[in-house]
Amino acid sequence: MAGDTPVPLRRRLFSRGSWAETSRVSEILRKETVGGVILLVAAAAALVWANSPWSASYFALRDLEVGSDVLGLHLNLTLGVWAADGLLAIFFFVVGLELKREFVAGDLRDPSRAALPIAAAVGGMAVPALIFVAINAGTGDGALRGWAIPTATDIAFAVAVLAVIATHLPSALRTFLLTLAVVDDLLAITVIAVFYSEKINLVALAATLIPLGLFALCVQRRIRSWWLLIPLAVITWVLMHESGVHATVAGVLLGFMVPVLRSEAAGGPDAGPGLAEHFEHRLRPISAGFAIPVFAFFAAGVGIGGLDGLGRALTDPITLGIIAGLVLGKPLGIVLTTRVLSTVTRAKLDPSLRWIDVFGMSLLAGIGFTVSLLIGDLAFGMGSERDEFVKIGVLSGSLLAACLAAVVLLTRNATYRRICEEETVDEDRDGVPDVYQRRND
């Protein structure tokens, strides 16, 4: 009878994922928190040095040229460029690994789960870009080249702030933040490759496929020999740099080549770490503890020039566009996209959460740093006056977004604590919280 037909449960937004995925994400966020703290220290040190009586030595160090144009390759670069092009390739390699794991072995292999963070990331990039363009329209002199600056989220910076202001964040939102930031990074590197690459050298770009293909062949055969993989990765990076496509793209492509098997991700009594997990375990500390902080040290140093200089920067359309994009555009884009998606799919927010929680997380996504500074360098040139305005805009916007997120999330921390206590109950002592063994009704 029609009356006996069971009514399907309505899909929930930000519902709990699997315990295995939640544990993995929690471990990643703990590592990112440490990296974020180091990042903040590096950025603060750069700002202090760049505005001290010894500021000339800071800029001399940043602009010190190292390398040579051997074999016709343009590798005579400043330390600042080496950090942006070389060290960040390590960061994007880890991004490539994480993104592939999410969609092959993580909860996001389910298209219905993947749709939300992907849509939110797209909305969180589109609205800030539109706001920047609206503020800078008609200013001329190539100001619109910076349209992508306020579109990126810095996961390490955001998680470091999160660790301080909200100690009991629900696992579903932590997963959402991490996944959104990873997808955000992928979209950002795509924007860099398409819109901020210089004149393309097709010969060098085609030659990139040779070491990249050999690297892929090695990792598909589970070869872990560093003396073979590292030279192939370096050659791929050098040829990508020579091609005119931003060299960090090589990091993402190399990360995508590493195989991820669901059986390896699931683990088991006799299962060792998969190759992607092995590389991520080895390289994430290098990325978070060295590569990103060194880049931040060379990218965040800006001579403010006293109150007059700061006032002039804060009234410039580029600075205003970046601040408005990060503080207003990011949360608007993410929340509006999420609400639209929930309306279209008729999905309801998980009962343990409120929309104010989503809004607080979206404010955290407005903390842009690493990729935003990178795009600013590419858009206006490192050391230019507009590049200085970019740095002030990114730092000011990120600080303001962090403060607003703190106001919202601190008021919700008691609720987070209650949810966390519920999730960690393990009456049968099997190592898995009971909430992950019950159906999400």
Secondary structure: elements and pairs:
Elements (H helix, E strand, L loop, with lengths): L11 E2 L5 H32 L4 H8 L2 E2 L10 E2 H26 L6 H26 L18 H11 L5 H25 L6 H19 L5 H18 L4 H10 L4 H5 L8 H26 L5 H9 L2 H29 L2 E2 L5 H10 L5 H11 L4 H39 L18
Helix pairs in contact: 1-5, 1-6, 1-11, 3-6, 3-9, 3-11, 4-6, 4-13, 5-16, 7-8, 8-9, 11-15, 13-14, 13-16, 14-16, 15-16
So what's the overall shape?
A: globular
Tally of domains:
1
Structural class: mainly alpha
Q: Please report which band the strand proportion falls in: under 5%, 5-15%, 15-25%, 25-35%, 35-45% or over 45%.
A: under 5%
In CATH, the architecture is Up-down Bundle
DSSP, total strands: 4
In CATH, the topology is named Na+/H+ antiporter like fold
CATH class: Mainly Alpha
Order of helices and strands: EHHEEHHHHHHHHHHHEHHH
Largest beta-sheet characterization: 2 strands, parallel
Radius of gyration: 22 Å
Distinct helical segment count? 16
How far is it from the N-terminal to the C-terminal residue, by CA? 24 Å
Poorly predicted parts: 1-9, 264-272
CATH fourth-tier homologous superfamily: Na+/H+ antiporter like domain
Membrane topology: Multi-pass membrane protein
GO biological process, one term: regulation of pH
GO cellular component, one term: plasma membrane
GO molecular function, one term: sodium:proton antiporter activity
In a few lines, what is going on in this structure?
69% of the residues lie in helices and 2% in strands. With 441 residues, the chain is mostly helical. The strands form two sheets. A two-stranded parallel ribbon has the order 1-4. A two-stranded antiparallel sheet has the order 2-3.
